[in-house]
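Sequence design from tokenized structure. All designs in this work follow the same two-part layout: the structure record, then the generated sequence. An example of the structure record is given first.
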């Protein structure tokens, strides 16, 4: 993989897209994970204004520490970056208290956290006339659909959505991303028990990447039991989350009925 050339290509793509949009820069949520770390760095390399937001909602201390440390690193490395620490815990509590108790299940409230962060990013973007940069990678966005619809999936542009998690890590190493972020277990940060992505999905990102590639291969080799299980997991998530990856269905009315 030509890592440096890919970095240059994405930075140029961001710069050109921003220029065509007529807006002034990028807003991005920084979580303490590799995807947001790489994306925020790529945006910063354009030289255009970047707002990096840490948005904890009862977040684990190590996640918050990595997020804040990355923002400080960005600010020291790029003078076009500003950081904001926006604690949304109290706001989340108010939303939760306004919901009927019977809809306050785990998945509903996890997705609500993500959508609250999206709302916050767009508030900053609207105020500063900026684009919201997404942090989803290829496996999340087009493989298993591991994101919240109109949450972290609600963005203006997706700089790393054509890269696998493994490739994102390669970019991260080249960009000099902090070791703590490079070695941290991937997590969406939406659950009180701080569960990892792998524990939720049942497979690692490298395994999911393999499944994605395997299913796109015309001639397929025999599988062992673990591989069969990974394929099953991948297909289950892909089918269940297909609605996130396709355009919103529109009911087209026949002309003779209008």
């Amino acid at each position: 993989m030509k890592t440096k050339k890919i970095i240059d290509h994405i930075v140029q793509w961001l710069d050109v897209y921003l220029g065509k949009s007529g807006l002034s820069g990028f807003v991005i949520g920084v979580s303490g994970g590799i995807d947001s770390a790489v994306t925020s760095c790529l945006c910063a390399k354009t030289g255009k204004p970047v707002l990096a937001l840490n948005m904890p909602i009862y977040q684990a201390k190590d996640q918050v520490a990595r997020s804040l440390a990355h923002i400080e690193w960005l600010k020291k490395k790029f003078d076009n970056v500003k950081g904001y620490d926006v604690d949304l815990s109290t706001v989340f509590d108010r939303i939760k208290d306004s919901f009927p108790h019977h809809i306050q299940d785990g998945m509903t409230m996890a997705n609500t956290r993500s959508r609250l962060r999206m709302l916050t990013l767009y508030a900053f973007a609207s105020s500063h006339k900026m684009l919201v940069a997404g942090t989803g990678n290829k496996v999340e966005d087009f493989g298993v659909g591991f994101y919240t619809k109109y949450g972290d999936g609600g963005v203006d542009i997706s700089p790393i959505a054509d890269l696998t998690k493994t490739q994102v890590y390669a970019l991260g190493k080249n960009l000099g991303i902090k070791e703590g972020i490079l070695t941290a277990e991937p997590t969406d940060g939406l659950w009180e028990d701080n569960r990892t992505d792998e524990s939720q999905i049942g497979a690692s990102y490298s395994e999911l990447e393999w499944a994605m590639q395997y299913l796109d291969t015309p001639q397929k080799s025999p599988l062992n039991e673990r591989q069969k299980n990974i394929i099953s997991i991948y297909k289950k998530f892909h089918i269940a989350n297909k609605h996130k990856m396709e355009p919103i269905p529109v009911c087209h009315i026949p002309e003779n009925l209008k």
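The longest helix spans residues 106-128. We note this feature because it recurs in several other targets discussed in the main text.
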